[in-house]
Amino acid sequence: MAWLTWRQHRLEGTIATTALALVGLLLLLTGLRAYSAFDAAGLDTCLSDGSHHCVLALDQFQERFASFTVLSGWLNLLPGLIGVLLAAPLVMDLDQGTYRLVWTQGISRSRWLWTQLGLLTASAVVAGLAISALFTWWRRPFDRIEGRMSPSVFDFQGIVPVAYVLFAIAVALAIGVATRRTAASLAGGFVVYVVVRLSVQQWVRPHYVSPVRATWTPRVREPAEVSHAWKLSGAIVGRDGHRVADPDALFRACGFNPKPSEATRCFREHGVFNTALYQPADRFWLFQAIEFALFVGIAAALAGGVVWWIRRRLA
Question: Over the chain, what is the mean pLDDT?
Answer without folding.
Answer: 85
